[in-house]
Amino acid sequence: MFSKIRKRRLLGSAILLLTALPAVAETPTEATRNANTAALSELPMADRRDFALAERGFVATLKDPVIRDAAGKPVWDTAAFAFAKGDAPPSVHPSLWRHAQVLGKAGLFKVTDHIWQVRGFDVANITFVRGDKGWIVIDPLTATETAAAAYALISEKVAKLPVTAMIYTHSHVDHFGGAGAISAVMVKDAPILAPQGFTRAAVSENVIAGPAMGRRAGYQFGLGLPKGPDGSMGSGIGMGVAAGTRSLVPPTREISETGTELTIDGVRIRFQVTPGTEAPAEMNFGFPDWKVADLAENANATQHNILTPRGAVIRDAKAWAQGLTEAIDFFAGAEVLITSHGWPRFGANEITDYLGKHRDAYAYLHDQTVRLMNKGLTGPEIAATLTLPPALAKQWYDRPYYGSYSFNSRAVYQFYMGWYDGNPVHLAPLPPETGGKRYVEAMGGAVRVKGLAQEAFAKGDYTWAAELLNKVIFADGEDRAAKALIARTYRQLAYQSENALWRNMYLTGADELDDGVAATDPTGGAALVSQLPPSDLFDVLAVRLDPTKAADGALALGFVFPDNQAQHTITVANGVLVHRPGLRDVRQATLTVRYADLLAALFSGQPLANKIASGEAKIEGDPAAFARLIGWLDKPDPAFNIVTP
After folding, report:
1. What's the 3-state SS for 116-170?
2. Cβ–Cβ < 8 Å for 109, 116
3. Which candidate among 80, 342, 443, 622 keeps its CA 20 to 30 Å from the CA of 367?
4. Total domains present in the chain
């Protein structure tokens, strides 16, 4: 089926860590060169304030730019984008090239007398706040290796102090995955703060839909792409996602109310909770004695995603805009603004202007999408119509490096109206393969359609060329000529993309059309799985139950977990697994086992039979009941096809 199989690793349920292959050389066409030249003429290139902000307070960076794991394997290269100098090459949109130049500055930065950041060691920033006795650490990155490198750098250049507290701004893995390294240098009983609902959000998003999200995350972040003018130019909010070891250290306290004020290690902190904005569980906070505000990932150096391409629950653009309005008032008078991605901003007037225009970008997106929706336009029609007003479009922080108006307007439409556009023809659409075959036949056959696509390509009409070729490929997944031409087409679309994620997705799709889908090793998700509560565990089993395997089978199985003194019962009937707390009267068997051992059996391939044989676990009743359940469960496919049938 595939012309080539490559090797990838899956670390964590929703992040694919891939070994990059050399980019396929594709010369930018005249149409692409002209498009990027035209884009350059419309950009405010004379505005170089971001360069000064990104450089401000620089202290030092690593002597060796490569961060490695315990085995010596590279997990991050702080100098990976050192090539981004001078004018943009024709294979990169000039705005995206500029953004990579600003965002690629890596090292330790002094923000104020009390606050330092390490930026460019991962996709996110890690912030160190000087308390009376040690460091308060905010957002310990994605991997323990990058977090440890950041701590080592500040220990060397500023002060080697213990960590007296840790704060997670929100529930995405790039803001807590490195916590294991920081917890190793924490004082006893140090508080770990997070927004309300953090643990459930952090775990559930990465587990229930983790395999599908992980596959698409590989596209979104370009994790299999080399970095360079023909490859990935970062991810819009950072320069990529670090490989390495994920961890999750549970919070000791979740903040539930705006206005909550705490004093941690002598530092006064005031919180604004913002659920349902950039993440299901998120919070901003400020240091009022220093006039510093931390806006988490609710404010950025780019337009963000209302619906991330990797897949997630849709975010509420209206709530996001309202949260920024509240932040303007809540942190009024702040002289310094820090965020989880990008660089700080300084001056009360500058901060208010920035937050206001950033807010307006989301408010305009929401309000105008709904206005057009109520006039009868569908999601794709709105996406083709809606653009930012000039006053906002000239702000670099509202440019579409991560999120885009095209994608976000369709997300707002979906938030209110769902995927269906009201046209009855879309009630029961043909599947892509069936539709592809019929379209190709109706248009005169594959040779004719490929000829039309070649003509479109020659004219620089790459979107139409891709539409045509996609029909051919889903009619015949072995059509090499169609795959080769659409791969070339995707690369031209990538070169014209201002959006870093679109570029990554086009290039990844092109690579898979050329080389096939890579094999994947599912390893390393134990940190998140270990925090999975039983109710969520049984939800995972429910979505992995294969009704063809269970057939007419029925099962009632009790679970007793002595390590957390919990009891649960699951039933299987009609192809549905249902979970209830407690032991029910009617059950075929009861399994008594440490919860950690059950997780190891289900997710790490450690046979439970060994635990039963040793007496560490026992099953009462039908001895084959648990094995029968396991036999009914399906394994996710972390390497499913996307651009081919």
Report:
1. EEEECCCCCCEEEEECCCCEEEECCCCCHHHHHHHHHHHHHHCCCCCEEEEECCE
2. yes
3. 342
4. 3
pLDDT digits (tens, 9 = 90+) for 369-427: 999 999 999 999 999 999 999 999 999 999 999 999 999 999 999 999 999 999 999 99
Q: How far apart (Å, rounded) are the C-alpha atoms in residues 141 and 177?
A: 6
Structural element, H or E, at residue 578: strand 576-581
Identify which has the larger pLDDT, 21 or 2.
21
Q: Comparing 25-29, 283-287, 313-317, which segment has the lowest mean pLDDT?
A: 25-29
For residue 596, the domain's CATH number is: 3.30.1050.10
Three-class secondary structure of residue 438 per DSSP? helix
Residues forming a β-bridge with 194: 254
Q: Are 8 and 475 in contact (CB under 8 A)?
A: no
Q: Two tokens at 265?
A: 């290690």
Share of the chain above pLDDT 70, in %: 95
Sign of CA dihedral 523, 527, 528, 531: positive
Record the tokens describing residue 203, joined without a space: 């775990």
CATH number of the domain within which 463 lies? 1.25.40.880
Q: Please answer whether residues 417 and 373 qualify as being in contact, where contact means their C-beta atoms are separated by less than 8 angstroms.
A: yes
CATH of the domain at 216: 3.60.15.30
Query: What CA–CA distance (Å, rounded) separates 154 from 466?
Result: 49
What mean pLDDT do residues 136-151 have?
98
What pLDDT does residue 603 have?
Answer: 87
- What domain range is 553 assigned to? 533-632
